[in-house]
Amino acid sequence: MTQSLEQQVREELTLYARKIVAKGLVVGPGGNISAKAGDLMLLSPSGFALEDIEPHQWIRVEIGSGKVLDTEFRPSSEVLMHLYAYRENPDIQAIVHTHPAYCIALTLVSRELPMLFPDQAALVGEVTFVPYVLPTTDLLADAVAAKVGQYNSILLENHGLVTTGKNLREAYYRTEVVEESAKIYLAAKAAGTPKVLTDAEYKEIQSLESEAYRVQLLQKLQ
Ligand SMILES: [Zn+2]
Question: Residue limits of the Class II aldolase/adducin N-terminal domain (predicted)?
């Protein structure tokens, strides 16, 4: 691995960490994000607000062994959740874990997030749900790892959201789109009975060539 790849990942993490806070997807020192650089993952340090992390402060952890290579700060307390997810699905290059208000509100009243609009169908697909377990434990890490092979977006009951992607941009956009979906669904439910997309309508969106192009572009861009 070249130094420049790691440096690039550090800068991207810093950029998206600030976006996450600016968009209100976490408050205070909540949430944690990571991205792969070769055999390592670079993970947010514990106790920092995401927006305060400088490029050199992302913590290097060996994905295979779980060994933490930096000792100045502790890695995020959700280090196991990130490690297990990367080990389970080698296609994952980045993980965004946030505490978005509408996602959390949704998990308090519903275990599902139906397909509501085209961007959700094209960029996210089906969202899954993990019942409440104590954060920071291997119970949560195991529960998330069991889902990351099949789903890129996982609602955590009474807790928040995990999204994965082929790069940070994709994982981040998925967080934004799932939060927007939760917001729309809750608003619609409060007003009446939501009309959701049918399976056929969902599949039709996924088969659009223009959407495939957009998703491909999203995965390529850094
Ligand atoms: Zn959390």
Answer: 11-186
